[in-house]
Amino acid sequence: MKVSTIVQVAGGLIIASAGLYIFFKDVDIKEIGSHIQQTEWWVIALVALMSPISLWLRALRWRLMLPRRKNTHKHGLFSITVIAFAVNNILPARLGEAVRAVLLWRRNRFTIAESVGSLVLERAIDSTVFLSCLFLPIFFVGSLENLLPLGVFGGAGFAGILMTFLFYAIFPDFTKKMSSKVLFIIPGKFHDWFRKLGNELISNLDWIFSLRKSFVVAVLSYAIIFCYVVMIWLLGIKLSGFAVFQSMFGVAFAALGSAIPLAPGYVGTLHAVLQKGLALLGVQGSSAAAITVLYHAIGYVVVTFMGIVFFFTLKLSVDDIGKAKQQIGD
Predict the structure, then answer these.
(1) Residue 100 and residue 81 in contact, taking contact as beta carbons nearer than 8 Å
(2) Residues 6+ apart with CB under 8 A from 155
(3) Does residue 243 form part of some domain?
């Protein structure tokens, strides 16, 4: 086993353990269990349904964003997406992203640059939506008014990313020229990496020149994230005053925990951060812990099970995952 792999696994376990310690240190496990048992079966069923729906919507958006190229096809994107998220649930360092890119390359014949670029662009769009889920509740939920500076920061980030997309759509050639000039202020050893990243992103931006496609991408992006909003809202449906804005804020905080890459399945990191977000909303103790456990566990079980089914259906092997990591690393 390579040293880098050992470091990733060890780092993931340490981060996950630290997150779980923070999560459990001030709550009663028996009370968490009691709250979970009181959750209605139909709530659990609807939350379980939201996970595959979000991945199906993600696959639809991916299909629209991928460029049209000769000798390529866009079939099977849903199964690839599910497998990638299942791998992320099991292995550290978001290895599922590498698997997703390589499967798109091998099965759909897109280049590695186009495959990786589509995922980088997807991450940028998701981040934009998550930022709106962060700053909007801060301005509309009274209990969050002390977080106004964070809301301003989130709003500025949202506007900045949105303006970048808009500027490129209107002035694509000028944007490319300005981007190339940025290389002069970046250390030389990073030039190739930034140039490659830019080319990967540009190859997946053909849709931005169509108003109709841009609108559909925006609608799908919010629909994807609102699947998670509905999940948290359903899990907190019995709480007084827990509505859409509160759920949006919870999703934004959950995304912060998910952004820490080493922990497999976002275990620990998501728990600690989402619990903190719910506490800021006034959801305390075992109630916040129960919502967090169910939000993570239901999606984890459903997606992992579906991913394993698709994994064997597509006749993949564990070696394919290792090759995916090596290919992306190269």
Answers:
(1) yes
(2) 131, 135
(3) yes
- Is 118 inside a domain boundary? no
The predicted model scores a pTM of: 0.89
What amino acid is encoded at 139 in this protein?
A: F
Distance CA 97, CA 239 (A): 36
- Residue 51 inside a domain? The answer is yes
Angle at 261 between CA 296 and CA 264, to 5 degrees: 50
Q: How many folded domains does the chain comprise?
A: 1
Per-residue model confidence as pLDDT tens digits over 137-184: 998 888 888 889 889 999 999 999 999 999 989 988 888 777 776 666
Tokens standing for residue 202: 């540009």
Distance CA 97, CA 262 (A): 13
Nearest to 264 by CA among 119, 133, 99, 85: 85
CB 303 within 8 A of CB 72: no
Residue 77 phi, psi (nearest 5): -70, -30
Q: What size, in residues, is the chain?
A: 330
Determine, yes or no, domain membership for 281.
Answer: yes
Angle between helices 77-90 and 41-65 (to 10 degrees): 120
| 89: containing domain | 3-106+212-329
What is the enclosing helix (H) or strand (E) of 110? none
Q: For 257-304, how does the pLDDT look when each residue is reduced to its tens digit (9 = 90+)?
A: 777 777 778 888 899 999 999 998 888 888 999 999 999 999 999 999
